[in-house]
Design a protein that fits this description.
The protein is of the alpha+beta class. It contains five helices and eleven strands. The chain has helices spanning 17-25, 43-51, 83-89, 100-107, 152-159; strands spanning 6-8, 30-33, 59-66, 69-76, 80-81, 95-97, 125-128, 137-143, 146-150, 162-164, 167-168.
Length: 169
């Protein structure tokens, strides 16, 4: 049974750090909320299904360790992260997924709800180069069951992201 996603415009009051950051920056965005199912095997695929959006337009936020430095990777949920490409994109040699507890402490978000926006500590960010092929993309708004839709150009600007081919189909 498909879940129905609710669309709303969030003005930041009572929002997440991600939506507060978007509002403060004056960036247009739309919030999509849905009932999160903890038994679903993939947070990103669940979001795409609930919103009725192609998985190519829904991006997951992953935190990796590149040569000892935490780095954010934003890739389509339809694929996976190429760790070697991520390392190369930031001038590193080796990348591995970060310890989940460290990622949560550093970003201020829980796994499955990590947003590239409004993080406790701003981390270097790499956005998959497929993002600008879409007028808008969806990323986590800072908690499970909440996504924000915005222009990939705005996302890249707000996170100072490097665009690179870091996603694998």
């Amino acid at each position: 049974m498909a879940k129905k996603a609710k669309k709303q415009q969030d003005k930041g009051a009572g929002g997440t750090p991600a939506t507060v950051a978007l509002t403060a920056a004056g960036v247009p965005y739309t919030v999509h909320s849905y009932d999160h199912d903890p038994s679903h095997p993939s947070y990103g695929e669940e979001a795409a299904e609930a919103m009725g959006v192609s998985p190519d337009r829904v991006f997951k936020t992953l935190v990796a360790d590149v040569d000892g430095a935490l780095t954010v990777a934003v890739v389509p949920v339809a694929g996976s992260l190429d760790l070697k490409a991520l390392a190369a994109a930031v001038g590193g040699k080796r990348a591995a997924m970060a310890d989940p507890a460290l990622a949560e402490r550093t970003t201020g978000y829980v796994r499955g709800g990590i947003s590239p926006l409004g993080q406790r500590k701003r981390l270097p960010t790499v956005l998959d180069d497929s993002a600008p092929t879409h007028a808008t993309i969806c990323v986590s708004a800072g908690r499970r069951g909440l996504e924000v839709e915005l222009s990939p150009v705005d996302l890249a600007d707000l996170t100072n992201a490097v665009l690179a081919p870091i996603g694998r189909a």
